[in-house]
Amino acid sequence: MIQMKNVSKIYTIGNEELYALNRATLTINDGEFVAIIGPSGSGKSTLMNIIGCLDTADDGKYLLDGQAIEDYTEDELTRIRNFKIGFVFQNFNLLPKNTALENVELPLIYQGISRKECRERAENALIRMGLSERMDHRPSELSGGQQQRVAIARAIVTSPSLILADEPTGNLDHKTGVEILELFKELHANGNTIVLITHDDGIAQKAERRLRILDGQVTEDTAS
Ligand code: ADP
Ligand code: ADP
């Protein structure tokens, strides 16, 4: 699904060049659950943004489903970001004035699906996340763990083949983080490909494979 060869991303700050990614090479196959682990500043978010087609590499090759990323049209990339990939972020990124149900419906409304089907699918996603009693709550009325479960419901409601999660447990206490990881494991068991970014070794151990990033390079690839 994801193939990267010698991918570099360079930021120019003043007259200094900073390699956020420095010839990173990796392959992630359909159906894998991979944790990308590394310290702060090692290039994890940059890597996730490139994998998720939110940003582009300055050098190297990125193939998504066998096709070079530069060969996709802008429209195709928008479709990939909206329908093929489900994003989960550290700070949940929920709309504060909308209910859990409305937040989860949103990606489907963008797809032009009927109101009735949007509602049904959003309700089902929230039920899967154990939030049947919380659908009409606003984010401020939910705990951090519940907010992240709403965000995961929003990520899966479009049935994406790939879920990209950037430090999804970073704002949660340990116990809640472990519960969120169990949800990702269930999604994986149901066939989703999951790429999870973390700086937490304990969290990374729950994935079936770990890629360690250091100074913009993949330095270790271990399967459990
Ligand atoms: P991580 O997610 O592992 O913390 P990042 O991918 O966010 O790492 O960052 C990798 C390196 O690139 C860091 O040194 C960071 O400061 C730098 N960096 C990231 N984004 C930018 C940017 N927009 N402009 C300049 N430098 C950046
Ligand atoms: P961090 O990795 O510092 O915790 P976030 O997880 O909030 O930051 O975001 C990671 C990256 O994804 C950032 O570069 C940000 O610009 C981008 N991003 C955040 N939210 C969205 C979104 N809703 N859609 C697209 N890109 C986003």
From TrEMBL:
One Pfam family in the UniProt entry: ABC_tran
Entry's transmembrane regions: none
Source domain of life: Bacteria
InterPro entries: AAA+_ATPase, ABC_transporter-like_ATP-bd, ABC_transporter-like_CS, ABC_transpr_LolD-like, MacB-like_ATP-bd, P-loop_NTPase
Coiled coil: none
Gene Ontology MF: a single term: ATP binding
Keyword rRNA-binding appears in the UniProt entry: no
Start and end residues of each ABC transporter domain: 2-223
Keywords: ATP-binding, Nucleotide-binding, Transport
Name of the protein this chain belongs to: ABC transporter ATP-binding protein
